[in-house]
Design goal:
186 residues, five-stranded parallel beta sheet, 12% strand
Length: 186
């Protein structure tokens, strides 16, 4: 505009325009331990922003035709992780959406790469003693502390930012959205 039409933009106008365009050109991705609030915060973000929510666990259950615990019982974790990777790759082929992943989605390097290529990834953290285990096969199978210890390097490798989700979901969503609008073009 300035170069071709000899018109000056007001200071900050370019940044304002980029801020408006960022949500459409990038995904907002939520990762974290099972029960940390990814689906809840994702729904709040979707309602607040109007961006569609892709809840990977819901999408996997829809595709499989039965619940995640039933999938684990019938087909095992390896088959679940394969379907999870395919579902994530499809979701990440689009932009302008909120993607809530399953707790173990970060375990595969190709999943972390897919998330980072087309999204800004937020590691939602919650106190381990506040994590529910009902309906979560791997959370019930062993120690949450051990699961967290094993997964933490993968969460950190996937994440662009880390947010504690011990407050109401609306506050966490607001904090994430503010950061996303300021940093998703990085």
């Amino acid at each position: 505009e300035e170069r071709f039409f000899d018109r000056r933009f007001p200071s900050g106008e370019t940044e304002r325009i980029l801020t408006l365009l960022r949500p459409a050109s990038c995904n907002l991705v939520l990762v974290g331990m099972p029960g940390c609030g990814k689906s809840t915060v994702g729904r709040v973000l979707s309602e607040k922003t109007g961006l569609p929510l892709v809840d990977l666990d819901e999408e996997i259950a829809r595709r499989a035709g039965y619940s995640i615990p039933d999938f684990f019982a019938r087909e095992g974790e390896a088959a679940f992780r394969d379907l999870e990777s395919r579902t994530l790759a499809e979701a990440m082929s689009k932009t302008g959406q909120i993607v809530s992943t399953g707790g173990g989605c970060v375990l595969r390097p190709e999943n972390r790469l897919a998330m980072r290529r087309s999204g800004r990834v937020y590691f939602l953290q919650r106190d381990l003693d506040a994590l529910p285990t009902d309906g979560r096969p791997l959370s019930q199978a062993g120690s949450l502390e051990e699961m967290y210890r094993v997964r933490l390097p993968s969460y950190n490798a996937a994440a662009d930012a880390s947010v504690f989700n011990n407050a109401p979901a609306e506050e966490t969503a607001q904090e994430i959205w503010r950061d996303f609008c300021e940093n998703s073009g990085d």
